[in-house]
Every structure is written in structure tokens, then in C-alpha cells.
Amino acid sequence: MKRIDVKRELLGTVKGNDGDIIRYLKDRFEPGLKPRQRPKGKLKGIAEDCWQALALAVAVARGESLRAGHTLLLSHGMAVERLRTILPDAHIGITVDLWPQHPATDSQEDRAAAGRMSEFNGWFLDPIYRGDYPPLMRDHAGGLLPEFTPDQRRLVQQPLDFLGVNNYSRAIIRHDPGHPPIQASHVPPPGPVTEMGWEIYPDGIREILHWVNDRCSPPAIYITENGAAFHDEPDEAGRVDDHQRRAFIRDHLAAAHRAIAEGVPLRGYFAWSLLDNFEWAHGYTKRFGIVRVDYHTLERTVKLSGEWYGGVARTGLLQLD
Predict the structure, then answer these.
(1) Fold of 2-204
(2) pTM for the full model?
């Protein structure tokens, strides 16, 4: 627990340095990514997801990933407790990455497999909003999944002011006995994809907003990441006309607006990302930015999508052309 104590002490510096300007804080960001380690610490491929990490934990790593996730939840509770003390007026939340899980076919087996995958979306949500891990997760993990003591449950379940959701696409799931313990695996998406190989599926953002709102009832939700990587280059005049990215963001904003009209308490949307940047295992090979970065000169060029997005932000108007 020493590392958690150090984290708590570091949080104390926020009050003195930035406490007068910070009003919205996420103490954890995509916690599902953190436990994804193979035995001996070798990082898994970023394309692999939380569910395969769980399978690895149960079948290979003897529960190390599950215990790591449990510790992350406890450290989340400790951070929230500390932040409430030093910044009592701040809005505090957490961000998780969520994709809707769709069956590959209409068969009963595929629908059940997609349902199992959806339940595991609650790995880091259910303990916070419901007091324990999803029952299906406990069934599949057996005794490897730690139990919460009453004090730990109280710590983890401290109320949050908002929930952040990172969403980029959906997952297509088939029943697959060859992938225990969940017996489910991904299949290639049927639609057009981004440079990341992720399907362009705008309504997925509306679906996952409804899913998380129905399951957790947070007082406010923010889309903290949504965007697309495309191969875009400046023309002879130096402009970057990234029409695909502009259409991606436009269509996802429209789907998010429908969710608001349907009663979801969505309070904001953040495009990923402002600048082309270092993208995890992909390094500088994938560009998400609405502003292009020349990695040799560091020159910044606002792309077509950035000009358009700035207009939407200034006016609050979204034209579906």
C-alpha cells in the first residue's frame, strides 16, 4: 500500500499549486488498461481488451490482473476521499473506456456471448455504482476475484459528480469455446474502419451512453474521448482537408445529441485529440489530431476538422450536411 500512500501525498500538492483553477478532476483514466500485463510484466497489445485480460488473469496469471484492478479501485476511493478534503468545491469523477457489444449473428449463442461481454463492461463501474463486481464476473473468475470488506466498499462507493466515457466504436462478438472463461471472441467489423481498424459506427456512442446511464445513473456524463485516426497529409498549399475525420466527429456529435434528447444527462464532449500525438504502442504512426503536427519541425496546422469543430464549439450549432 506504500505506493497508494505516496499518491495521496502527491494529491496534496494540487491545493497549493492549482487548486484555485482546477474544478473538474478525474482521479483515474481508463483503469481497465492498467491491469493488462502478461506474466513477467510484458505488456499486451493495445488492441486486446479488458475481457481478454480477464481470461489471461484466470487462465495464466493466477489472478494478478484481477488483484491489480482491485487495488486500482481502492486507490480510486482513497484519491476521491483526499480530493474531497483538499478541493471541496471540485467536481470529481472517473473515466472508463466502453464499447457496445453486438452479436455477430442473431443466433442464441452469439447473443449470449455479446451479453457476457457487456456484463464485463462493469468491471470498474459496478463496484463504484453498485457495490460489487458484476455477478457474471464472479462466476467466471471464481475465487481469484478479491472480495470487498465493508470499509473498502464504503471507500470505493463514494459518490462521484460525473462519469467520463471514452468511446470510439462497437465490438462484434461471437460465441467461441476456444476462448475461456468467457467463451467469446471478436470478429472483424462489417463496416468501414479507421486507421486503427475500428469500425466507424456513430450510433455506438448513443447506445453506450444509454447503457451506462441505465446501469449506473450518474448525475452527469461526459464523453471524454471520441475521435478517429486517418492518414491525412497537407496539400501543396499546406492545408489538411480531413473530410473523413470531420464526418466522423459530426456524426458522433449528432448521435450524442440524440442521446440527450432521449434523457441521457450528457454534459459535454471532448474530441480526441487536439494534436497529433504519441499513440501508445502505435507511436507516431496514427494521427487522431484536429491539428496536424509536423514531427520534424513541430509546426502546427489546424486541419479542416479543427476549423469546423471550432465553429461548432463557438456557435453550438451542428449542421448535418
Answers:
(1) TIM Barrel (3.20.20)
(2) 0.87
